[in-house]
């Protein structure tokens, strides 16, 4: 059955060193990949020759480079430091180079210092598969007792502080190091990687930057790069905060519908777009995901479709794609409505997946980015889209 304006099915690929190959991705049924020039240091210009070579590699494997994820925003821009203007100029240059190679959807985030954050990369599910998990108590145990951030305890509820002390006391040195690495060494795709001493110092860089100041820096960034992007027919898509709340006392400003509405109001350029990450935004029970898709539909140019499951203690883990707190059926219905009304094939990726089956025994894998779990997620999402589309009025009837 053919669908009108189907989602473009993609998977993230971390480049030639990724244990998941382009052939694997193609066999999973994806037609596109989402990737970045991960070997280029954050803040340096992406040269045309390197972009073109990577594109050719992807196309030689029978795939399309659908979306750039990510063109990193340097801390000088996030913090608004002395080097900001030079960093902005380099960002614009990279955009122009990407457009010259036909790449027009560019993902970025505006999370201070850390990208996505978890406290456990191998949480065992009842069926033996492994998932990524976040526990506030584990975060507090690291923050208060390993990192020793001044004033950290006052950022957590007293019950969490008490539980964190007990958790820390029960951990041996190896477990403490594992927790430290998990939280701050940088998960796959992250732009920064820290040890605790450096991280503590870097947090100091945000001493004078509250949420309003960070928001101003984001708006300034967009005002500086959107005209270039717009002239090149590009879309910059911001990835929401993951998880969608402040960590380590650092502000986070892309977590709610109100955050997004303020951003699009401040910079109305059509180049100011959104990567709608269901797994990130869905961690907050107060985010009404289908309503947000309807509200921001015209801004959404990329989708991360994954699910999370919360519990009463504020923990969450990455659930199977159709099985978490997000009602993926309603999410998909809302997405299909945007795709049809705007007549667009929006790229999506299953985002993460469980480590399962043979992937449990591989010598090397990127947490969250194993082949089989993502293949399963993509297959489920593809079936869901097809099922919903089968119930839609035929395209001819719309005309
Ligand atoms: C995690 C990803 C993020 C995302 C960046 C975008 O799996 O969704 O690392 O790529 O936040 O800049
Ligand atoms: Mn995501």
Automatic annotation (TrEMBL):
<dbReference type="GO" id="GO:0008927">
    <property type="term" value="F:mannonate dehydratase activity"/>
</dbReference>
<comment type="pathway">
    <text>Carbohydrate metabolism; pentose and glucuronate interconversion.</text>
</comment>
<comment type="function">
    <text>Catalyzes the dehydration of D-mannonate.</text>
</comment>
<keyword id="KW-0456">Lyase</keyword>
<dbReference type="Pfam" id="PF03786">
    <property type="entry name" value="UxuA"/>
</dbReference>
<keyword id="KW-0408">Iron</keyword>
<protein>
    <recommendedName>
        <fullName>Mannonate dehydratase</fullName>
        <ecNumber>4.2.1.8</ecNumber>
    </recommendedName>
</protein>
<dbReference type="InterPro" id="IPR004628">
    <property type="entry name" value="Man_deHydtase"/>
</dbReference>
<keyword id="KW-0464">Manganese</keyword>
<comment type="similarity">
    <text>Belongs to the mannonate dehydratase family.</text>
</comment>
<dbReference type="InterPro" id="IPR036237">
    <property type="entry name" value="Xyl_isomerase-like_sf"/>
</dbReference>
